[in-house]
Design brief:
single chain; alpha+beta; four-stranded antiparallel β-sheet; about 20% helix; flat
Length: about 150
């Protein structure tokens, strides 16, 4: 059943409490759902504005984040913290465009903390690890579709 993971995801997004708040410029606020993100965790990010938002972009550690609109003044996103990311201070870059055309950009400091988890090693044939040209093209197409989906929801 595919509806259970989707329902769980939507429930988590709706019931998140926000632990850290960072004021940005032009009445834009960035909130994180935990004050101590750990390796292997999803970090919820909420961008709110006193005035309507047109779009929100963000990134950290060389990766782009994708956001979806909750309503005209709120966007949310999820930041996946890799299990292999070393515990260290990080910066989350956020850029919000208001419907007026003005832009608010800010950098949010946060530290990744050491996770406590079991590591299992699995040896598999190289063909299951390295994508073929066809599979890589499919992955890129599907990533573009997800970006488009996040941009329109």
């Amino acid at each position: 059943m595919r509806t259970k993971p989707l329902a769980l995801f939507l429930w988590l997004c709706a019931t998140t409490s926000w632990a850290e708040t960072f004021p940005c410029k032009l009445g834009v606020t960035v909130e994180l759902d935990t004050s101590q993100p750990i390796q292997g965790q999803l970090l919820g990010v909420k961008i709110s504005s006193e005035t309507p938002l047109a779009s929100v972009t963000g990134g950290w550690g060389g990766h782009n984040l994708h956001f979806w609109a909750e309503d005209e003044t709120t966007f949310k996103g999820l930041l996946g913290i890799d299990l292999r990311r070393k515990p260290a201070p990080n910066l989350l870059s956020i850029s919000a465009e208001l419907t007026s055309g003005k832009r608010a950009s800010c950098r949010i400091p946060f530290a990744v903390h050491k996770g406590d988890f079991v590591v299992e090693r699995l040896d598999v044939d190289r063909k299951y690890v390295a994508l073929s040209k066809e599979d890589l093209a499919r992955a890129n197409r599907e990533s573009a579709q997800l970006r488009d989906l996040f941009a329109t929801t």
